[in-house]
Amino acid sequence: QVIYVARNPKDVAVSFYHFHRLAKFLPDPGSFDSFLTQFLEGTVQYGSWFDHVKGWLGQRQLLDIFYVTYEELHQDLCGTAQRIGTFLGCPLGPETLRALGEHCSFASMRDNSMTNYTLIPPEIMDHSQGRFMRKGEVVGDWRDHFTPQQNALFNRRYQEEMGELELPARWPM
């Protein structure tokens, strides 16, 4: 069984840009504009978002995959967790769901040194550049970063790559 979590690719690009600024083991991202170009070309570390998502969508017939989005988790963490538990054959009880909601909230994880990367030494993560868990409460942060031209470029590329695919979720683009 596979649980596949996807996120609005525009938010992925913004988040990954900020992660590149923190992570000393990754190349300097340069300007957001140049990073976005690399993201759209699939030349960023770990490759193309489009190829990754299409690759896993292509496995639907072969594997038992539960598709979920970051946005679903953000909107209804406990309900989504319950659906995941059902998929795995182990439904979650009310106390487990309560604890999950408490410990997996963005605020809790942001303040937890086991999840927020603050234990990573400064030789690896430049904490002076910001926090790893930056704006997780916000879905659609891309709107604060993309220019209208970048948005149009991204939408064209998205349509070229993903246009005919039946995605488990549609994001506001």
From TrEMBL:
This is Sulfotransferase. Signal peptide: none annotated. The keyword Transferase applies. One of its GO terms (molecular function) is sulfotransferase activity. InterPro entries: P-loop_NTPase, Sulfotransferase_dom. PANTHER family: SULFOTRANSFERASE SULT (PTHR11783). Belongs to the sulfotransferase 1 family. It comes from the Eukaryota. Gene3D superfamilies: P-loop containing nucleotide triphosphate hydrolases (3.40.50.300). Residues 2-165 form the Sulfotransferase domain. Its EC number is 2.8.2.-. Keywords: Transferase.
